[in-house]
Amino acid sequence: MTTVSTSPATRTKTAHGSAPKSRRRAGVVIGRLGLWAWLLATMIPLVFMLITSVKPEGIARSLPPKWLFTPTFDNYRHVLAGGDGLSQGFNDLLLHSAIVTAGSTLLTIVVAVPASYALAMRTFRQRKFLSSWILSTYMFPPIVAVIPIFIYAGKLDLIDRYPVLIVPYAAFNLPIAVWTLRAAVLQIPYEIQESAMVDGASQFTILRRIIWPLLIPSVATAAILSAILSWNEFLFALSLTRSEVKTAPVGVQEFTGMFGTQWGALTAAATVIVAPIVVMTLVLRRRIVSGLTLGAVK
Amino acid sequence: MPRPGRGGGTFRSSQRSRNSTAWVLMAPALALLLIMTIVPAVYLLWASLRNKTLLGLTDRFVGLQNYRDVLSNPDQLHGFARTGFFVLAAVTLELLLGLLLAVPLAAQSRSNNIAATLLLLPFAVTPVVSALMFKELLNPATGWIDYYMGQIGLPAHVEWLSNPTTAWVAIIGLDVWQWTPFVALILMAGLQSLPHEPREAAAIDGANAWQTFRHVSLPQLGPFIAIALVLRTIQAFKTFDAFALLTNGGPGKSTEIVNLQIYRVALQSFRIGAASATAIVFLILLSLLVPLLLRFAGRNADPEEA
Amino acid sequence: MSNSFIPRWAKAGATVLALALALTACGSDDGGTAVEPKAAKPQSLRMLYASTEADAAAVEAILPAFKKKFGFELKMDSQPLPGVQTKAFAELASNSSAYDIIIVDASWMPSLVGKLEPLSKYINDPKLNDMADTDFGDFIPKVLYDTSVYQADNIIAQYPDQSKVPDAKAITEAGFDIYNLPLQANVLIQSYRKDLFNDPKQKAAFEKKYGRPLEVPKTLDEYREVAKFFTQPDKKLYGTTVMAGVGDWSTDDFKTLLATQGGNGLMIDDKFNMAFNSPEGVKALEFYRSLITDGSVPPGSLNASWNEVAASFGSGVTAMSQNYHNAALNDDVDGEEGYAQVPAGVAQGPHFGTWGLAVNPNGKNKAWAYRAMTWLTAAEQQLTMTQDLLHPTRTSVYDQVQNQTEDPQLAEFYKVMGASLAVGVGRPRLTNYTEVAQAIAVAVNEAASGKKEPQEALDSAEQNVRRLLSEAGYDLGS
Asked: Is the N end or the C end of chain A the one with fewer CB atoms within 10 Å?
């Protein structure tokens, strides 16, 4: 195995001379260029959003687009504080969004961890059927669920209360959380559990003492994915809230309407909605990626 | 909570006790999914047999009439077909592009750290917001894309959303913009986790970069591709915001997908019975697809359970 | 969120029981419980409102005055279309008492009539009309009859004489009732660039080309000609706008043209005749398409709605435009806006749709909700709200605002609006109008884009509309 440690470049060179190497390098360069071209192109909508949000009102939509101007934060002030036809400021809406997101993410994890552990137990005979079934519920389209939930929530007087968003969001995130976490549990060497069982530890003890600490990184992944969906959800939030728990993606629609779109306010609102989730995603990027691969790594 | 009394029981009884422990551990998850998917599904099934409206103007048992209406309505059937087309096109493109981006991204370097960070940005953007931004950028009278395309000599005044083909390009483009990062990162992580040895061995044997990728890396990447495919396919079937905000089903009916049809009937005309029948048909079609996807994913991603 | 979740969850069970009891109790009573004018003042009232469509900013501006007058607060939650519709229906369907006042759009009324408090009893009780000058006869007849006056057991019926000065007693005697008080009326009007129309160079060029002076078009032929004249794509200027994207907006454009060509602007009459599929309908679509084939409308028109059209005119891209408000130019466009009625053909019938305020029959403060509504819709308050560009619903307000305002442009706008409302045409009274309108919008869009010939498009729309109506339970005969 010592040969493996020598660098691949040297090996290639010795075996084939420099022509394939330069071709390989050309391929790498083209790949890189393609990657960066893609990245730049995908930034356009975000640049548009940011720039428009700080443009003075009169020139927000002028063509050719103006790139030199004195930035203004009026749009942010208006959006955050509310007033002038805006029924609620975004500081309220962002708070509601944060509570809903935190609540549903927590619920997802609390429910998903024991379930994933059970589904990874070799002695649990129904595990195969149940894993398939849980993943298949991920297919249930929210647009279909919204009708009955809306009717029952109305009858139970739950409209415009936190649970009416937290519980459905948790349910819709559960399959992907279970998928991620179960794969992580399966990765933990079974011998560790077995030796604990021989020592007479119960399943709950094993879960709490042995599995849970090893699972924390994957929990982070599942939590982030749940949080993104909950934070961005629109249809349920629109149908099931009034003002007490109205979330930010619903509020953003108030800037478009029959008489034109207030682009400055809309983009400022969009920016304040997108910013927290982007920051969180960036901070935890490595976690998201490693968690997503767990289902595949054996 | 240890159970001293059972510790020394027979193998079978400890098996049973573990099984019941498993059920206890599963219970909250099952309850949640029961309330949020099975109960709605049962309600839909019941409502689909009635001519129910939200406000209770009518609410009578009508047998299979709603299903007859759905299945005899060519628009509705086209809606299902369009949904299938969208999922197929968007997911295929995302997998191809994701793979293309993942390869250069998988090399460990400082610039790639920045690249991976930037790549993830669109994934975090609220879909409502990205749809509104796309619509404005594509506006042929006031949008940036038209203006700058004209500036660099490309055809100006492309009426993106007024022509069925370009409208599909725009909608699929939005989905690709939003979700390719997700696919690319899964595949990137996959490539990074692959062992080096086989690739090196192939290089020694004189394989070029493409051959190495095609015959060594790609097969190893199988499980990751399977995961990306399954997740994206499921998510793509749920797409709603992009269609509602970007085209509203137009031009004509060319982008009218099932989710829009259900939305119109259920939440704009409030004909719950009729909408439920469409929803049930949709659910049946999806549930036929689930086992196929799971088998595919299972074979590739989950050898232990396969 | 002041309370914790748990008591609310626990309460839910009890609420279901209570609701069930309340439902059975109400069911026998026809919803017509007596209103107690002497009911104590509530702590506050809550109103569901529509954002820009119904000018939430104007209402918000007079809320402090409301508190001064009533001694308690009126809280307003607003949401734009289409969300506000989902909400209003959800509130009424679940018999929730959360809102005392609920905004309703004319197009929702056919579904909602059975769920709203009939107002004739309130209007006829002087003790409930003590907070404002509630002159009922002052509402614009067309607006009131179209928006508010319905026959509960025959929803599709239109009030027979829609030009008569509104009178609550006459309405109830004819078997109708009043289900809301109209507040904001949106009607299709034409805006144009006064600076371009007054430009001597443009005037000379037009006269030279067409042998008549350049004027704001009054007929469809003139409209098409003027639109063509101004169109200069190389200078990024187009003649006018159309809202040909799939949605309410294109249906509304079409029904206006249908009426203008002499057809029935309602599109479907109360005998279920498909008046939109007619020679007039074909002519309307041919005219609509001609604006597009002439190149007189900006690119993107085939996907445009209210919003894009406002943006095109606002950024100075078009010389004329048709929309439902005082379309204004952006700050960086050097020019002046003018307003006119939309061009006429053999007849006139601009589309209009009105927002009204309705009493939630499940509300706990119905007497005060009604009083608040009378105050908000009274002439005095409407006049104040024109400062924030409310589109009033009373004849006297249009008269007053034209005399009072020092802004000639605004006077012109309100004059045009008032005149347009007086000849406006509303919508057919169908419970699934949204779906019907969508089917017609598809036809308009397909004819406008040239994908189908007008007759072909209307034929397939008729087929779809018939299917939709029978699916919704309407008996179309054969």
From this structure: N
